[in-house]
Structures are given as C-alpha cells and as structure tokens.
Amino acid sequence: MGVTRLKRKDRKNKTTSRLEVQFLKLGRNIETGSRSAESAKSQLSKNNAVLAAIEAAAKK
Description:
Strand content: under 5%
Helix content: 55-70%
Order of helices and strands: HH
C-alpha cells in the first residue's frame, strides 16, 4: 500500500503533541547538582524565578 498523506488537522495534532512532549521533557528530570541541571539563562528558570517572586509577594 502507498503512503497516505495526513490531513491538515492530523499534521497539526502531530506537531502540537511533539512540541508538548518536548516542553514536558524540558520541565522535568532536572536534578540538583547533576550534569542535567538547568542553566540560569533558560526561559524555564526565569519563569520559575518570576513565579516564586509573585508567590512571595502574595504571601505577605
């Protein structure tokens, strides 16, 4: 049988799910002091710092 092309909706779902998996992998499996430690320049660590500051301000 020949290769069938995905419809536009299925192509979008495939791309979206791949990006979601990539995002989840970036946010997990980070151990302190290991080689997989997240760099301070990454967007996730910047976001976490901002969220922590907002939480601290809300608790006051």
